[in-house]
Specification:
The structure is a homodimer of 238-residue chains. Chain A is an alpha+beta fold. In chain A, 34% of the residues are buried. Chain A has seven helices and ten strands. The first copy, chain A, has two domains: 10-81, Winged helix-like DNA-binding domain superfamily/Winged helix DNA-binding domain (Arc Repressor Mutant, subunit A); 88-226, Chorismate lyase-like (Chorismate lyase), CATH 3.40.1410.10. Chain A has a six-stranded antiparallel sheet with strand order 4-5-6-9-8-7. A two-stranded antiparallel ribbon of chain A has the order 1-2. At the A-B interface, strand 3, helix 6, strand 7, strand 8 and strand 10 of A face strand 3, helix 6, strand 7, strand 8 and strand 10 of B. The structure holds a DNA duplex (19 and 19 nucleotides).
Chain lengths: 238, 238
DNA sequence: GAGTGGTCTAGACCACACG
DNA sequence: GTGTGGTCTAGACCACTCA
């Protein structure tokens, strides 16, 4: 009737126990932890069960395991967190707000040398370009300057990006394999300042994102956000 | 002699096969994928082996599994990446550069109301405060304004932060349980601009990070970086 | 050689979803 | 009921490290 705890699975119990003792500092970073055999004896479960608990802790970065040596409490010297780069449309919709996009440019251009190198196409060859301003409840939130490899998404220019977003379209039209991003602070260009309706010296959060399929580069985007209106948040729990 | 591939473990082969077909779009997002039993038959391995491959793909966010129903290709509508917030000292050392820190303040202060609430202490009660400028090869890279809950790290004020970093010290002195961060762009305060030797209107990347132990808040830090000198990078591979 | 982790197996029982 | 995933077991073989 009232038990909200459906009895933790054995592997989860072992995991929880180890996590707990790690969190309370019973095993300082670098410390040798109990071996699988010891935990098997202690919990009365099979080795596979203990192994799974330890393997998952390793995947979470809480322990280091070395074959032939043992399991060690991880030096938590880096705090990793999952940074989620989402489709802006979804993000705004989740807040219960209204998203709309103003398509400033949607065209085919000849790739300048630097861009061509990054997209992996010949200099001067045609690439797709869009410049879109995204607004949340009418307030400009992001200026999206994007170049797309035509080979990866031939139908790109035919899309109506006031109804869907390039991110969303590319996700379903291409097979994403790898993404790379850089987050920095900078000033908007004159055009970006105008489109975002901000002062020319307003600090902006700039995200440059490149995505790749198994072989070719799919797209490269420069996302400029007014610093006063947008930030990236996240959290991390062991 | 020349084989750099020590024969992939069976579970890894299954995983690689599925990853490959997902990447090439053979199973569009939402599509029902082969059941464990089918993969067992196809690869001639035991079910535990197939299960492990699928479980890891799920942990990586590539598939969704529903008990009693099946395994589905995940809707890749969010691209998650591991954002690593590291000890700046390590980061600089890894680049082969020299790190040094200028301790501007290291003191005990009475917590103003807003801060007290965030640290979970009584307003006006003593908290530790440090203001440190970190330099890479002599160039100011980060202004670290940090408040620490004295209950979590009683020895904090006795540290020599020109030799170690607060991050490093707190990692080993406390049991970290949860971390929260926000990344935004903004202007430095007048003091920060002076300490970083930048113009008052230079855009800065500002990271506000809070870390917690199992119960109390340990520390809250405001990390200000000149936008022209520092950014956060990362990448994501399925 | 003793101890460790890395992995696999062939079966088993369960909870769940669906027709 | 049938098919699905969730989990556990008791044993096995291997590769590795260290004394």
């Amino acid at each position: 009737m009232s038990s909200p705890s459906p009895r933790l699975a054995p592997y989860a119990q072992v995991k929880q126990y180890l996590k707990q003792r790690l969190a309370t500092g019973d095993w300082p970073p670098g410390q040798l932890m109990p071996s699988e055999a010891e935990l098997v004896a202690q919990f009365g479960v099979s080795r596979m069960t203990v192994n799974r608990a330890l393997r998952e802790l390793q995947a979470e970065g809480l322990v280091d395991r070395v074959q032939g040596v043992g399991t060690f409490a991880a030096a938590l010297h880096k705090v990793s967190s999952t940074l989620t780069l989402r489709d802006l449309h979804e993000e705004i919709a989740e807040r219960g707000h209204r998203h709309d996009a103003q398509v400033v440019a949607q065209e085919q251009v000849a790739a300048p040398e630097a861009l061509a190198a990054q997209l992996g196409v010949a200099p001067g060859s045609p690439v797709f370009h869009t410049l879109i301003v995204h607004r949340e409840n009418g307030v400009p939130l992001q200026c999206e300057d994007r170049y797309v490899n035509p080979a990866c998404a031939p139908g790109y220019l035919a899309q109506d990006f006031s109804r869907t977003t390039p991110t969303h379209y590319l996700f379903q039209a291409t097979a994403l394999w790898r993404a790379q991003y850089a987050i920095e602070a900078g000033r908007p260009t004159a055009e970006e300042a105008r489109l975002l309706a901000i002062a020319a010296d307003e600090p902006c959060l700039i995200i440059v994102r490149r995505t790749f399929s198994t072989e070719a580069a799919i797209t490269i985007a420069r996302l400029v956000h007014p610093g006063s209106r947008y930030g990236v948040e996240g959290q991390f729990t062991p």
